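Hi P.,

Sorry for the delay on this. The queue was packed all week, but I finally got your sequence through. Input first:
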Amino acid sequence: MPSMITNGLMILLASSYIPLSLSLTSLGNIAITAIILISKDEVFVPKTKSKLGWYSKYLNNPLGRFITLAIQLTLGWPLYLMFNVSGRLYSRFACHYDPHGSIYSNRERLRIRISDADVLAITYGLYRFVCLWMSLADCEWISSVDNIFAAYPPVSATL
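Then the structure:
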């Protein structure tokens, strides 16, 4: 039973880190992919053979693919969400966390704000959970986050 609860919590936490914004931008992909316009894809726009780097032939093996995958998951995914690295080009800066970005329509802006609040709440909850299980001395490096929240009192703003 405890492992079932742990698995459920891990799934909840992992799904909370996938912003709603990603699902909103992927909705339009169904029609685009159906007509095979891969250059209009949101998440991954593959490079043509002429634009591949000199190093690509050295990474075409199991170890190279593992290194590439590790880099994509640790650096590429966050950079894609924050700065639209390797994503589709837009007329202006595109960020999955910006409700006023060029990725979204006006009707989706409130849902993006809610999704952003969810990501922040889960991040803060994980921070507090880690502090609970670590000694205070081990948690000092990250305790500056508490000082930031204490310095700025909550503002009641309407969405």
